[in-house]
Amino acid sequence: MPTKPIVDAHMHLWDTSAHDWYPGLARFVEAGKPEIADNFLLNDFDRGLDGIEVSGLVHVSATTAPHTYLAETRWVDGIAEADPRPFALVGAVDPSLPKSDLIDHLDEQARTERFRGVRVFAGLSPNTPAADVIAGWLQDHDAVFDLVAKPAEILDWIDFLAGYPNLRVVLEHLGFPQGHSSDARTAWHNAISLAAKETQWLCKLSGFGLICRDLTWPSLEYWLESSVSLWGWRRLMFASNMPVDSMAGTYPELVSTIDKIVTTDATDQEADFFYRTNALDTYRPR
Fold this sequence. Notes:
8 strands
């Protein structure tokens, strides 16, 4: 296990008993994983650590009801205020909004001091007016674009974001691999190879619960070794994606498996970059 505290660059909190912000969680119920849609609050996150020291958190918006990300930002900021650890918040925005409303929603979230950027989980395409507004606002405010892009979309995002050279971009969940078949792996490998070579993006080593049945080394080996080879430790960051990735295993199981490649491949400084410094430099939790 890591000998230094971790900064978790991607986790979620939700209170589904109190807030109707998460209709998208129904897909986990339909997939036979109803526990993912249960309340997941900070004490639940901490209980799952089982002794692993997490010294900082980046909360990523998970709302899917229209515009509830505004209330979620305020709600999570209140939770963070009561916790001694540094927190950063990655919000969201509705790309179907008119330009003026898009900017208003970004401005409103930015009034929260822990707000550090946005992700748009669905409905945003490159080379569109909404993408221009969002990318321009984020670049102007030195905020982070948490990029949700599947392998088939990455080339278009590379071309589009080249027009925003000072925008800080973090690719979520390894670029969302679309399966384990030979064709799916090749498409993923080609796409993230291009992203690693042609951009200055960082990448979250996360989302394994979306593509793997468990979090053992045989399940994660290909994705871990490929990602480290392509991106290097200075551009990868640890992120748990809990509670979603608990579909495949526990927090300690995830960390234990990832730490196998860290301890064999990374220097002490590189391990610190991966587990802590890259997230601190990017998201500046407070």
